[in-house]
Request: fold
Amino acid sequence: MGHTGAGKSSIAKLIARFYEFQEGRLLIDGLDVRTFDLQQYRKQLGIVSQVPFLFSGTVADNIRYAVPDVKESEMLEMARKIGDGEWLDTLPEGLHTEVGERGGRLSMGQRQLVALMRVLVQRPAIFILDEATASIDPFTEWQIQQALNLILTNSTSILIAHRLSTVKAADRIVVMELGRIIQEGTHESLLKEGGHYATLYNMYFRHQSLAYVEQAKELIEGD
Reply:
């Protein structure tokens, strides 16, 4: 977590080795990432960027990008675990729906779900998510959260969070400012500690909480 420009996405890109760093070390299981074979290392990473990228082709083509031999039956089984597959039923030809250049024929929520499905069939050791801030309806958000939960169960996950549900679910929250880590802890411990996290929470996330909604409702009804 952190304000725009704090360095969140830069760390994600360093982990993926999109950039090579000049100082310090980045270790995975005690080993410097620069000692790994890049092609084999990238096969262990599942990445969904802030604006998920889709290639021209079908939904199935895009899901198969990381695992070309995955069977259609396996994709359908996985799709049914997300909102009972209703998101897939909204596509005119299901898995065979053409997504268009960069996924332009799909809504942002549908693009996110296809990108998450790609990660689900890949089963990566490490999942990196720069969570999208695009406005989506609550039902699509619920489906995306279901897909995320399936991934989080089986992968070490590094999430750049823009939703309260993601923040609160994290085992460890890292707060960044101007390229440095300034706080670490759980949601509860960081709120008690105050400081930058509490400020970010009150500014960006508190209004998403059920307690805040209920309190606002009581104030409105009181008036």
